[in-house]
Amino acid sequence: MTTTQTLIRLAGDGLTLAADRWEPARCPAHGAVLLLHGGGQTRHSWQRTGQRLSQAGWVAYAIDARGHGDSDWAADGDYSPDAHTRDLRAVAASLDEPPVLVGASMGGMASLLAQGEHGVGRALILVDIAPRAEPDGLAKISAFMESGLAGFDTLEDALSAVVAYNPHRRRPPRIEGLRKNLRHRDGRWHWHWDPMVVRHRENGMDRAAARERRARAAAQAVTVPTLLIRGAQSDVLSTEGARELLELIPGARHIDVAGSGHMVGGDDNDLLSEGLLEFLHGAVSAG
What we know:
The protein has 287 residues and is α/β, with parallel strands linked by helices. It has one domain (3-138, 209-284): Rossmann fold (3-Layer(aba) Sandwich), CATH 3.40.50.1820. Helix content is 37%, strand content 20%. The protein is built from ten helices and ten strands. The protein has helices spanning 47-55, 81-93, 106-118, 135-147, 155-165, 175-179, 208-220, 239-248, 264-267, 269-284; strands at residues 3-11, 16-24, 32-36, 59-63, 100-104, 123-127, 182-185, 188-191, 226-231, 253-257. The chain is globular, with a radius of gyration of 18 Å. The relative contact order is 0.16.
């Protein structure tokens, strides 16, 4: 099926967000799907998923979160879960109908809060995130992001850092793919996100318990079709954490992606897309 891809701008909460939009060229669309990436990633992590969704008749938006990629940086440095949730609500409100929310890690938490507290979507797909997250896994992510703040001498150095962070990745990252997430300035390669992303007080480990309580309350309020996609080797979402989410949202479905860690989209985007499409065409379209 022929599809079109366009780079667009969307209004967030007081700033502008960049997004790739894919839509079917000929057939009627089933609806809109918002794809929200994790902390330190960009919209490019959803490229294959966005293409496959549009080929299947959905309009897909892969959005750079505030402070990431080509979206605006927050002038006040606010990268709290609340800020990402407000942006998501603003984007959803601009559409003609409630979208499907697909969020990985940071984007998944914003999706859970937006749905549970404000009911903005018609369905919810969480990728390797739930109210209960493993402290060691979260600390590993923070350490990786902090370690790259000074930049890298070469793209090869950045690639080595990614491989060291996730040595079990099924599909090794490529230099050209990494280039989309880096910018060259002052003689070094820097990740394409605001350093304040990792320093906002609400994202600290000392706030983890409060974040979990809020996320549990949000999950208990979710009534739309819900799917949890977990990386089978994830060090952030344990089997116990996944089981708790399924108890909090009765009727929620669950898929484990074998051979993938926390960054399921980057580890094996094709398997993620297959499970997502099956869910959309079954539980969502049928509903």
